[in-house]
Amino acid sequence: EVQLLVSGGGLTEPGGSLRLSCGVSGITLNLYAMSWVRQAPGKGLQWVSSISSGGVTYYADSVKGRFTISRDTSKNTVSLQLNSLRAEDTAVYYCASRYGLYFDYWGQGTLVTVSS
Amino acid sequence: QTVVTQEPSFSVSPGGTVTLTCGLKSGSVSTNFYPSWYQQTPGQAPRTLIYNTNTRSSGVPDRFSGSILGNKAALTITGAQADDESDYYCVLYMGSGVSVFGGGTKVTVL
Fold first, then answer.
1. Which pLDDT band, with edges at 50, 70 and 90, does A100 fall under?
2. Does residue B60 belong to the interface with chain A, where contact is any CB pair within 8 Å?
């Protein structure tokens, strides 16, 4: 059974930083790409970032230069470092796996709130 | 900036059929965008329904089907049930690792 367990959300001030983690079981990161998708309160889903099975990283324009996706294949975890946070980054952040060009397994979300 | 369009809302009667569409503000959607569809109920993580245009994800009932209709991707629910009342999102793969979500369609079954 595939499980994605997300942790690390919370409240921070504008300009602050947070680190999200996604613990993965049931799949191997060397074979799967992983992504982060977010959802602002009352809004739709938005792709944020992906890391390929080969370790290549991709970012939405809105987070490029501020967020960094990484993975630890030995621990089977994927992380998202969120820097220079803005109020508009407030959202539930989901971790999702990608075997093809779609999101197949989803973790539960973690809420990131950016507010002074 | 790529904009993926979806109808904001749809209403369907129990047992009825509804077709949701997923288009591009500029251009046509084809299988080359590998359209996928996701269902989300409030407070829950999304659930994968359809990928690669028309392949149902494991465990998804066959009342859900995907296709290309004209210049858009489409999700059809045939024989709608009460628990199909959800938000539905399409995603198009734009290449270079980039995926774009549509704005979502709220489906009401009544």
1. confident
2. no
